[in-house]
Amino acid sequence: MKVTAYKPYFGATPKSLNDDDFTKLTVYFELLGAVKKPTVSLIIPIYRAKETLVAHIYSLANLKTIIPYEVIFVENNADDESLSILEQLGAKVVSEKQQGITYARQRGLEEAKGQIICTMDPDSIYDPYYVDKMALPFFVDKDLVLCYSVSKSYEDDFQLSSKMKFRNKLKNIYFRWKLSQDFTTKIKHIRAVCMAVRRDSILPIGYETDLKAVSGCDDGMLAIKLYNVGKFKYIPIDVYTALPPKRDPAKPFPFCNERFMPAKKSMEETYKELITEEVAQ
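and the corresponding structure tokens:
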């Protein structure tokens, strides 16, 4: 399905679904529950997601893979409507009461059983072959620790106007250029919405849970730490996500500068540590 085909599911609830769609999603979670040894774990934090959650789940149910996987929703003080959707469809949900995206992702990491961790967002629509494309490279290259991609954007109800399609083309060109740059530039443009990590590599590191919940921190800081552990790989694949909130163009969104990091550890100190470790090796 193309992202535009998800329009009927924008703002949908289990009760609003037709019988075939409701059965498809409930049977999907029943089948997932029968997977005892998943190779891949899909981790989705949930906070406020009621408008896009059913569509997101539908995109998961459309995944095509023979790789055994699990789906774990981490509710982080989520709204009642989102929780009701997950409960009615029979999804696996774990709770993290400490507010913040890094706490939620860390809770999902600790719960996961798969060798490969895919971090995902509930406002995003994923390519049917997402699991294969993001996970299989890890079994080809033992030194690979992180796979990442560049997401595209959709409009409010999963539509793509000509303007949005043009914007997505420019975004892809821009991000591919940024991701080809030096270490500090590349790290700033890796996003958790389409990121896969080797579990054995991430477990000893974990998420910076004392960071404030600011976009670019949870994924960027993790990438910084993983950069010195192994290799990264860019994966071209379609992922559509909601547009970011509007902000003052004169004040670009900060990437984990010292206002958003623990005072005990500045970004400069982190860079120095990485450089020192790299030289020591």
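(Above: one complete record from the training split.) The longest helix spans residues 162-179.
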